[in-house]
What we know:
alpha/beta, Glutaconate Coenzyme A-transferase, seven-stranded parallel β-sheet, about 20% helix
Amino acid sequence: MAKPFIKPVITPREAAAYAAPGKSLMVGGFNYGGAPYTIIEALCDSGVKDIDLICVDTSYFQTKVPGPVGVARLVTNGQLRSLVASHIGLNKKTQELYTSGKLKIELIPMGTFVERIRAGGAGLGGILTPTGVDTVYEEGRETVELDGRRYILERPLRADTAFIRAYKADAAGNLVYYGTNRNFNPTMATAATRVVAEVDEVVPLGEIDPNNVVTPGIFIDALVLKGDGEYASRT
Length: 235
């Protein structure tokens, strides 16, 4: 019998190195919930720029201490080339860059956002949605009429790399989630060429009930332990 493929457990810095200038990157989570903070911190430290980020929001930016949180640091560091998101209302810096034309941003409804990613993971050519029809959002977008109703054709979203957050993994990369970790992370895990999951712990094979697995290990390329090494006090 063939042995199961064991996923490598890498350092946060090794994970961050997968993000490259001009490449697309998905990051899971919504504000504080379900974000892979350890990998994000390493990515900020790496200084890599010109990232095409796909993330539902740009987290929270405070003008006072402690300052930007999570993905917000990527914004304030000037590490993004473009952004696809649904919510930038908690980050004044993102708003400033957007309104001044210094950061290209595509704002899309949250349901449309996740369905475009799901379509990308499933290999679909796109989705049809009535959301945004007859609004400014429709401008410049292709529409289709079916059975007397008009829909916007939304193209699938995929990325070169995805950084996601889960609660626990086994050695083969099968993931289970806890609470709000299970927001955009399972969907993003299906829609990237390379997927790195940040987890609280990695347990031996057989310790996770197969019925509890949400993301099968076939989607996962590597694992990072939350708060690993130098990031223990920062996440």
